[in-house]
Q: What sequence folds into this?
């Protein structure tokens, strides 16, 4: 890809050159007019910040936000009888029940909307990183150009809210995770939008403070001294004396802005050690919980897009291939309190109505069906017809016909339930299916970005939702 | 120059005021006619045949059948031929023909130069790229006496485009360029000094020869350029959906394989050590879109990389932006497909239409296509390297020119349909390259010894090719690999790579190790796609990595230690199991002369190291021929160290591995067992060797400063800089901070 091709054009309004005022616009645009990127007028944003809470590895919907008839474990029971391994519990909203272990989230359900009909892409033999790529970019790999992460699209389109806080912050995901590292790296990128809009990666929220503080190796004194030395040398350098040019200026400027960020008061937002202990403890269920706390602090400081993940590591966290019941219990312990607390804290600070929180996963799970009931794909887990041990008890197969998505704040209708799945296996989506392009269009609409916004790459438009055809779900907005 | 220009201006202004008002022009006369008659199919979103009338430039450019207007020649213009019916199908298709008044208006508009406005200049003739390659005559120019052919083309170019041919850069600046472009390394102070002091008038050409003759350093550098182009990333194989071609590529560069053979190997990997991974592409598990099958990827990649043709759009549907159609992509793909016939799939929907293999330039197509895949691949390799196909050498020389001078002769290196700023120079370079046996080093030598390469750097101006005038090479930023390897050559601190199947590491050039946060921040791409130009823009995220990243901080810290002679080789292990997951290894050590034995378990990538159960089974010590179990056995966690007092014992034996109980999918144990006879350095448990040549310890501050400045910047420090540097060196961590500050200077990071 050449730089020319990467030269991105976006336009707010479409120009009709053959309309009434053609003559006037022709003169202005002939010759150098950039290729048009088709776009509708921008919708009025209902949110300024997006927090994506990523349930990495395929969160079992029937064990979380879409509970079905519960069955307790008994040796000798038939596997295909089991739909949910947890009991349903009531929530703050009449008519919405979720799974036990999520009592805190149940208590804030009246602040949010629940989608139960998310249908993942039909990508064949399941690969988590590929579905995650699809979820995060709207496109299934391989692609002929490097597609940008949704956070990069938002960073590129809307810019930072606060210049001292990176526009796209990604919390909790290590890039080296063994066999699927390549797949994970492939979408944690700004792709063709250019590295400027890439993620600021914080693998461990506890290290976030350190990542925007001078390295302990240097300490603040040496850090400032080194920067001073650099500035003096740069001023002495013949290149600096013989005039400025864009590339060199931008190098000097970028070092300057990194230095400013590292010395800025906003950097304190990254530092969890500054959070009062009682409040820290409310979130502290582990790394994910700390990530939620970090998201709250960064939202207050002016972040644009934050993703916090439970972390994808093959066969770990939500990627339950065995002991599904026990593992789901553990995962719910990790997510329940911090998600609810994040909603309450943002509400208390008056930020929830301008912050959209999205809780999502690459697909759902089921005990029996791999893929979709009518499009089954190659099984990856052996499920015995009759269960002998608890390790077989749980949702171990990857189910792509239904999954749950939670939305809070950011102009989303409160207490809303969207989509429906069947009560009996296969627990298919039977009402209002939502595909990724609609979900993205809905998120983009909240952020004030039209679903058919496009960027020109290699002379052709690439749309933020596939072919620009995503449509927001109007019922989800107030 | 000035008086002539002035005259033209005056003349132009007069002409405009007197005569222009009546001349036919696009805005007033032609656009309304087109809007009224053609808009339904060629306006707004519609681009029938790839042709749109919505913009003047696009309208002139034409559609898939080629340029619509040849300014000054209505008779040869497709636009007129179609509306008169001289060439079918007659336009407007299915509509009433244009009136003869309108037709004659269009005719006279084209004959008058197809102007936009009455005052506009005549439109430029469309650029029509040729396929064949004939060497243009080498021009004479009053601006040069050089016998170098490139210099003659450039001098003639300056004659026509105005301006003086710039003088060449200093010896030191030239050497820095040449070393970086041939080896990817900075010249050592001694080499630089010898070069600058030499009075041999031919020394620049000799230096280029000497650098290019070093096959190893040349291969170690140019492999990154080719890795980007060929999507080769050793570390990541996508569950077998990708195959490394590193071994082949390295050898091809090291032996300077002629480019026609190089291309043939890529397109027809018939031998065991052939680069099959190129045609395989990058494939993810699961179902894929029809336009992204390995066969289609092979067509897209070979066309883009080797021919400068973008088939990405038309792998799905006829392109809206170029002349290429769906069947062109499938025709090329059918050379690589299992079956000799391929069904066209439009936007993932099968069409029921089939195509045989067919080359993008049908004039080269042979009469019949063989059935066997091997034969089809052999045939397509012949077509790509056919002497009548000038596209392949043009694409290659243009890429090399762009790599060495910052901008291609055709600006878009992936679209060789574009207009070169000097068609003669491009064709001469390509012809010369072919005439010299497709020798890549010959091409490099030709460019690097030219005045064009040696001119002072210029700033990148606008990217619009119509405005571009060659003034000299553009400033280039050094690559991630060049940056990191520069630290190695200045300080002796290199990256450590582990070759497959080996336990010990090796100090290496950066390209050999998987990308790090540092190299990615500096623009090393994730090679899932073809990358023909690195993103080398300076961004805040990149600077955060440079200012505060641990990779660079550690490299510089250890580099400073080496420079000061404080680097101590870490204690060597006496046992290394290598990475163990489900397997096991036997340890059997001679303990004679040892006081203690330190057993170590380190994590090597487990998902849950804390849940891994490492086992030292049957741990026994021998004393006087008697084997006794290690008292209390060996029980350890990950990571941990256990110290045994082994005085008086002669041997230690055990079998190491992980307990079956931890072989769970969510633990995925991967550990490494070590033994040491002394206190280890936990950061350096794995053996690395051989030690790199560390530049001799500097004799004092003055020496340190000169060495850094000369190697990093190609010049010694000025007195003012020296003063700052001396002050810095007096502080704790001063050398590391001085190194860092110099590495951040634009003067270091750009090739001037």
A:
């Amino acid at each position: 890809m050449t730089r020319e091709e990467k030269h991105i054009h976006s336009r707010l309004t479409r120009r009709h050159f053959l309309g009434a005022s053609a003559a006037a616009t022709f003169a202005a645009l002939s010759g150098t007019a950039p290729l048009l990127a088709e776009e509708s007028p921008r919708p009025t944003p209902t949110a300024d910040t997006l927090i994506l809470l990523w349930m990495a590895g395929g969160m079992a919907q029937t064990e979380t936000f879409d509970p079905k008839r519960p069955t307790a474990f008994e040796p000798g029971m038939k596997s295909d009888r089991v739909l949910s391994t947890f009991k349903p519990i009531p929530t703050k909203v009449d008519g919405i029940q979720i799974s036990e272990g999520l009592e805190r989230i149940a208590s804030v359900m009246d602040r949010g909307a629940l989608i139960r009909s998310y249908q993942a892409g039909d990508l064949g033999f399941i690969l988590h990183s590929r579905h995650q790529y699809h979820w995060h970019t709207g496109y299934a790999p391989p692609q002929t150009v490097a597609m940008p992460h949704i956070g990069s699209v938002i960073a590129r389109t809307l810019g930072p809210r606060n210049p001292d806080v990176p526009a796209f912050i990604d919390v909790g995901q290590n890039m080296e995770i063994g066999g699927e590292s390549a797949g994970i790296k492939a979408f944690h990128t700004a792709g063709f939008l250019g590295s400027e809009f890439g993620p600021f990666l914080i693998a461990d929220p506890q290290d976030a403070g350190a990542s925007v503080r001078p390295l302990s190796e240097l300490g603040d004194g040496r850090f400032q001294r080194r920067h001073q030395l650099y500035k003096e040398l740069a001023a002495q350098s013949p290149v600096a004396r013989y005039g400025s040019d864009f590339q060199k200026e931008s190098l000097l400027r970028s070092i300057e802005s990194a230095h400013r960020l590292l010395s800025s008061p906003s950097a304190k937002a990254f530092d969890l050690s500054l959070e009062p202990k009682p409040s820290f403890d409310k979130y502290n269920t582990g790394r994910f919980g700390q990530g939620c706390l970090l998201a709250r602090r960064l939202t207050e400081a002016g972040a644009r897009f934050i993703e916090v993940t439970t972390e994808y590591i093959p066969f770990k966290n939500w990627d339950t291939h065995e002991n599904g019941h026990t593992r789901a219990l553990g995962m719910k312990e990790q997510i329940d309190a911090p998600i609810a607390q994040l909603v309450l804290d943002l509400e208390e600070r008056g930020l929830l109505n301008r912050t959209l929180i999205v809780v999502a996963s690459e697909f759902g799970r089921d005990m029996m069906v791999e893929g979709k009931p009518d499009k089954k794909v190659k099984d990856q887990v052996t499920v015995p017809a009759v269960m002998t041990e608890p390790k077989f008890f749980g949702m171990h197969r990857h189910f792509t016909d239904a999954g749950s998505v939670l939305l809070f704040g950011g102009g989303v209708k409160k207490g809303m339930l969207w989509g429906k799945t069947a009560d009996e296996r296969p627990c298919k989506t039977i009402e209002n299916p939502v595909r990724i392009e609609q979900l993205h269009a809905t998120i983009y609409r909240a952020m004030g970005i039209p679903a058919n916004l496009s960027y020109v790459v290699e002379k052709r438009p690439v749309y933020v939702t596939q072919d620009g055809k995503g449509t927001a779900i109007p019922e989800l907005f107030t | 120059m000035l008086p002539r220009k002035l005259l033209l201006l005056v003349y132009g202004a007069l002409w405009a005021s007197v005569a222009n008002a009546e001349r036919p022009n696009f805005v007033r006369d032609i656009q309304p006619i087109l809007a009224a008659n053609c808009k339904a199919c060629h306006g707004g979103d519609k681009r029938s045949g790839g042709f749109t009338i919505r913009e003047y430039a696009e309208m002139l450019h034409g559609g898939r059948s080629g340029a619509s207007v040849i300014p000054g020649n209505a008779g040869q213009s497709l636009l007129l031929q179609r509306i008169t019916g001289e060439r079918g199908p007659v336009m407007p298709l299915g509509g009433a023909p244009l009136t003869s008044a309108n037709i004659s208006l269009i005719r006279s508009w084209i004959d008058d130069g197809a102007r936009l406005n009455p005052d506009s200049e005549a439109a430029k003739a469309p650029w029509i790229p040729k396929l064949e390659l004939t060497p243009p005559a080498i021009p004479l120019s009053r601006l040069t006496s050089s016998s170098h052919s490139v210099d003659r083309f450039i001098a003639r170019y300056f004659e026509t485009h105005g301006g003086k041919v710039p003088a060449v850069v200093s010896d030191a600046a030239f050497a820095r360029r040449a070393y970086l472009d041939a080896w990817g390394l900075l010249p050592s102070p001694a080499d630089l000094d010898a070069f600058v002091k030499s009075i041999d008038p031919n020394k620049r050409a000799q230096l280029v020869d000497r650098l290019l003759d070093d096959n190893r350093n040349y291969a170690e550098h140019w492999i990154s350029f080719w890795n980007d182009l060929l999507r080769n990333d050793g570390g990541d194989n996508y569950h077998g959906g990708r195959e490394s071609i590193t071994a082949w590529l390295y050898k091809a560069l090291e032996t300077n394989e002629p480019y026609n053979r190089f291309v043939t190997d890529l397109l027809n990997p018939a031998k065991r050590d052939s680069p099959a991974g190129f045609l395989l592409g990058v494939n993810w598990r699961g179902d894929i879109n029809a336009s992204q099958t390995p066969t289609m990827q092979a067509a897209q990649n070979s066309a883009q990389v080797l021919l400068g043709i973008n088939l990405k759009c038309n792998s799905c549907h006829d392109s809206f932006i170029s002349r290429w159609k769906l069947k062109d992509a499938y025709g090329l793909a059918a050379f690589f497909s299992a079956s000799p016939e391929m069904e066209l799939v439009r936007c993932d929907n099968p069409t029921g239409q089939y195509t045989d293999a067919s080359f993008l330039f049908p004039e080269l197509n042979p009469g019949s296509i063989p059935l066997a895949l091997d034969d089809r691949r052999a045939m397509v390799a012949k077509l790509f390297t056919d002497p009548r196909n000038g596209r392949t050498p043009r694409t290659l020389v243009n890429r090399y020119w762009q790599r060495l001078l910052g901008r291609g002769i055709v600006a878009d290196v992936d679209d060789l349909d574009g207009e070169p700023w000097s068609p003669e120079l491009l064709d001469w370079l390509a012809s010369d390259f072919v005439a010299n046996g497709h020798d890549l080093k010959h091409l490099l030598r030709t460019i690097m010894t030219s005045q064009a390469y040696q001119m002072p750097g210029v700033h990148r101006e606008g990217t619009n090719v119509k405005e571009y005038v060659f003034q000299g090479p553009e400033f280039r930023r050094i690559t991630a690999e060049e940056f990191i390897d520069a630290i190695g050559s200045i300080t002796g601190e290199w990256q450590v790579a582990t070759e497959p199947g080996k336990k010990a590491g090796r100090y290496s050039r950066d390209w050999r190790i998987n990308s790090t946060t540092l190299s990615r921040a500096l623009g090393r791409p994730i090679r899932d796609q073809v990358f023909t130009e690195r993103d080398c823009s300076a961004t805040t995220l990149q600077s955060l990595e440079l200012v505060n990243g641990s990779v660079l901080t550690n490299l510089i810290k250890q580099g400073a230690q080496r420079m000061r002679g404080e680097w101590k080789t870490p204690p060597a292990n006496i046992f290394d199991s290598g990475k163990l997951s489900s397997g096991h290894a036997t340890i059997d050590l001679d303990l004679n002369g040892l006081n203690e034995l330190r057993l170590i378990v380190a994590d090597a990538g487990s998902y849950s190291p804390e849940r891994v159960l490492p086992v030292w089974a049957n741990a026994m010590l021998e004393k006087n021929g008697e084997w006794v179990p290690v008292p209390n056995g060996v029980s350890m966690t990950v990571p941990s160290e256990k110290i045994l007092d082994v005085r008086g014992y002669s041997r230690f034996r055990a079998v190491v591995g992980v307990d079956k109980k931890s072989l769970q999918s969510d633990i995925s144990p991967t550990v490494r067992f070590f033994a040491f006879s002394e206190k280890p350095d936990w950061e350096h448990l794995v053996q690395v060797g051989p030690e790199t040549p560390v530049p001799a310890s500097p004799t004092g501050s003055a020496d340190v400063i000169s060495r850094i400045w000369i190697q990093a910047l190609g010049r010694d420090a000025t007195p003012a800089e020296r003063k700052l540097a001396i002050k810095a060196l007096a502080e704790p961590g001063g050398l590391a901070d001085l190194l860092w500050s110099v590495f951040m200077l634009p003067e270091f990071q750009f090739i001037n």
In short: The radius of gyration of chain B is 32 Å. Chain B touches chain A through 106 residues (CB under 8 Å). The longest helix of chain B spans residues 2-19. DSSP finds 28 helices and 14 strands in chain B.
